[in-house]
What we know:
Helix content: 25-40%
Number of helices: 6
Low-confidence stretches: none
Distance between the termini: 44 Å
Structural class: alpha/beta
CATH architecture: 3-Layer(aba) Sandwich
Number of domains: 1
Largest sheet: 6 strands, mixed
Order of helices and strands: EHHEHEHHEHEE
Strand order of the largest sheet: 3-2-4-1-5-6
Mean pLDDT: 94
Radius of gyration: 17 Å
CATH class: Alpha Beta
CATH superfamily: Phosphoglycerate mutase-like
Amino acid sequence: MNKGAFDMITHFYLVRHGETDWNKSQRLQGHTDIPLNETGRKQAEKIGKRMANLPLQVICSSDLERARKTAEEIYKYHTQCVFTISKELRERCYGEWEGMTFGEIQKKFPEQQKGKVMSGKAGIETLEDLKSRGNRELQRLAEKYRGQHIAVVSHGGFINAVLHLYSNGLHGTGITKMGNTAFNHLSYEKEAWMIHTVNDTTHLNE
């Protein structure tokens, strides 16, 4: 590849999926495949409309239904796009905690600190492993579609993990409460990441 190819800017638009019933009841979903609820479907329609005028060339979604159905609403306005599915874009695996609220977790796991995730216990994917998985997949997309505009539809924990990594802790895990269908804009140029927009849900007010 010639040197000039490395100077092209690749744009990423990271979008969290719409609401599910488990989101509403504050249950950890992880890899459990929970569909969008009625609110989530409406939110997906709104993010689709918001992104209608972006120059997208690629849409890549997690394989879980809540993300895929959200991505399909974006695709309605960009049917010329490459549409791909990737298991690597899944939410963090929460192991034995999936389907539970934090109140239920604290009862079953009394050593659990409120609001914190015990990485590596109860089958939970560590935060470092999640960051590594997320970075590896976004780097793969950046290399494959260099210089293009890419929508990535994923999950709150996943997006926060990569934001935390790329911002050196300024945004993301433990700091940003990622809203359903939140819009995040990042760019990749000369092997470096820049963050332009974080957790924008203004489209839900329209």
